[in-house]
Amino acid sequence: MTRVGRRLTPAEREEILARATSGDSITAIGVRYGVTRQAIRGLLRRNGVPPRRAGTLTDAQRSEVVRRFLGGASLSQIAADFGVTAPSVRGLVLRRGIQIRSVSEGLRHDAFDSFEPDTCYWIGFLFADGCVSYRPGHIPQISVGLAERDRDHLVALRSYLGCDNSISRTSPTHGSCQFSVRSHRLADRLVELGRYKQAIDERLVASRDFWRGVVDGDGSLGIYRRPAPSTRSFAQFRVVGRRHVLDAFVAFLENEGITGLSVRPHRSIFTVGTTCGPAERIAALLYAGAATALARKAETAARMIGRQREGA
């Protein structure tokens, strides 16, 4: 992560100068030490060290580029790490006789056609955190961004969709990453099921997997300590979103025997929240025995479920 204003130690400055002298790119050095390219460039200029000319790689770096590509890294990611362009990396790989298959090859355009548990989950997740965009003359795009700490979840989504599209770092400063695919069928299906409509398909509304996906995208679960002098803790659940989505969620909970919740305004959107026993029951309803979930929220849900069982 790039940290604005971070001060380098004298030892780090010496290491940076040595790396630049040996041919490392400004981009790669900045990522390694968590500072901006401008800071690295200024340090080199003050010490009379010329930055590596863009687009040039040493023999060792060319070999490393090929090794990383064969290991599964994307052209764009390799290019960013070595401070060159993606076309130059593509050319190098092709000159080595390595076949480059389309990143969208294998993409399951029918991935959202069924209402299987995994399908409902990913639809719910994209309803919450995803964006479907249409541009004249272009194939519709589905994109989703997460914090870098949740990168593995985008890897899981990519695996579910069956493609090799890259997961890019969109903001080193804020530690975020993004994944996107292009497909008429996938985009149209999400819209058809209610992504931007005022009504969600009833088969999704009745699915706990769909709602787990929504909560993984726009919800929070936690166990917090009560104010002193109490030494006890309490569970909390909350999800935000558009009014009609949360109305459907409350109806789903009521159908499952969890009553008393209401949709309330929250800044420009709405929220549903609760604590203690009801929060634990929601965690159990959505996450108990679930095969697909955001890891850190599933871990918190497991602790909440454990509290519920201890209190039963």
Describe the SSE topology:
Layout: H1 10-22, H2 26-33, H3 37-46, H4 59-70, H5 75-82, H6 86-95, H7 117-129, E1 130-133, E2 141-147, H8 151-161, E3 167-171, E4 176-182, H9 184-193, H10 202-205, H11 208-218, E5 219-225, E6 233-241, H12 243-255, E7 264-266, E8 269-275, H13 276-287, H14 295-311
Antiparallel strand pairs: 1-2, 2-4, 3-4, 5-6, 6-8, 7-8
Helix pairs in contact: 2-3, 5-6, 7-11, 13-14
Description:
The chain is of the alpha+beta class and 312 residues long. The chain folds into 3 domains: 10-95, no CATH class; 117-197, Endonuclease I-creI, CATH 3.10.28; 204-311, Roll (Endonuclease I-creI). The protein is built from 14 helices and 8 strands. The strands form 2 sheets. Strands 1-2-4-3 form a 4-stranded antiparallel β-sheet. The radius of gyration is 24 Å and the shape is globular. 29% of the residues are buried.
Largest sheet: 4 strands, antiparallel
Instruction: Count the beta strands.
Output: 8
CATH architecture of the largest domain: Roll
Q: How many domains make up the coordinates?
A: 3
Overall radius of gyration: 24 Å
Distance between the terminal alpha carbons, to the nearest Å? 44 Å
Mean pLDDT: 88
Give the oligomeric state: single chain
- H and E order: HHHHHHHEEHEEHHHEEHEEHH
User: In one word, what is the shape?
Assistant: globular
Lateral arrangement of strands in the main beta sheet: 1-2-4-3
Beta strand %: 15-25%
> Number of helical segments?
14
Unreliable residue runs? none
Structural class: alpha+beta
